[in-house]
Design brief:
six-stranded antiparallel beta sheet; 10% helix; 259 residues; Jelly Rolls; seven-stranded antiparallel beta sheet
């Protein structure tokens, strides 16, 4: 009994020491002083949690920097940054101090339909001299193969790692200009597989106040959105209005500045 109590006390002291020093070594008795966890092995690796995209998206309040391995859709390592899951990429970075401009244009007039309550309702995807109309603006993702046809010309693929620095947009009315206030939102969507696009949280908006302007335009140059190589980028336009659900039509254009 005395020996048991002695071992118990030594065990408790060991656990207490690990908690106090907050440093653990696996496969080594001398973990590196700069590490919280030092795993040492020449015959085995370390496995991170593996899960599907749906399981990843179901994680409650994911912490900044959280790392997982996704097993479906676009498999690979993903880490949490801000409000996004970013895929770790082996693509090269863009050359330093260079800026590439990616232009998007509807090519044909788009149609945007707000709700009566002043909320977003139906918007349009802005492609490359094409567009898809009447796309729900209230869903968290846009699936380009679900009732929207084969939108192969609606997105660009990042060839290398880059950071979106600015978003410019313009809208030229072709139908009747709403008589009351209208806010047009041009949003950046992204996808890892080219099918399911989700909203990045980044947008620029154009406000129409009193009067009947022919066109609206905006420049937002405070963005700092990292996009790894292989990511698909798509532009989407929607609107809110206190003029009911009267459709708004016109040509939509947007440009991304990527460094």
């Amino acid at each position: 009994m005395k020996n048991f109590l002695t071992y118990l006390i030594l065990f408790a002291l060991t656990i207490s020491g690990n908690v106090l020093f907050a440093q653990v070594g696996l496969g080594t008795l001398t973990p590196d002083p700069s590490s919280e966890l030092d795993v040492n092995s020449t015959t085995r690796g370390m496995l991170t949690p593996r899960m599907t995209q749906a399981q990843r998206n179901a994680i409650t309040a994911p912490a900044e920097g959280l790392l997982i391995y996704q097993t479906d859709q676009a498999p690979g390592f993903y880490f949490r940054q801000g409000a996004q899951w970013i895929k770790l990429s082996t693509a090269p970075d863009a050359p330093h101090n260079t800026l590439s401009i990616i232009p998007f244009s509807s090519g044909v007039p788009v149609r945007i339909i707000p709700q009566h309550s002043g909320l977003e309702n139906l918007g349009s995807i802005i492609g490359f001299s094409n567009a898809t109309l009447d796309v729900p603006a209230t869903t968290p993702t846009i699936d380009v193969t679900s009732g929207l046809g084969n939108n192969v010309n609606h997105a660009m693929i990042m060839p290398i790692n880059g950071t979106i620095k600015f978003l410019s947009a313009s809208f030229t009315f072709t139908g009747a200009v709403p008589t009351q206030e209208v806010y047009l939102y041009v949003k950046i969507y992204r996808s890892d597989n080219g099918v399911s696009f989700y909203y990045t949280g980044q947008y620029a908006f154009m406000a129409k106040g009193a009067g009947n302007p022919v066109a609206l335009q905006v420049l937002r140059n405070d963005l700092d959105l990292f996009v790894p190589g292989g990511t698909h980028l798509m532009m989407f336009i929607s609107a809110t209005s206190n003029n009911g659900n009267t459709p708004i039509t016109g040509f939509a254009r947007a440009s991304l500045g990527i460094q």
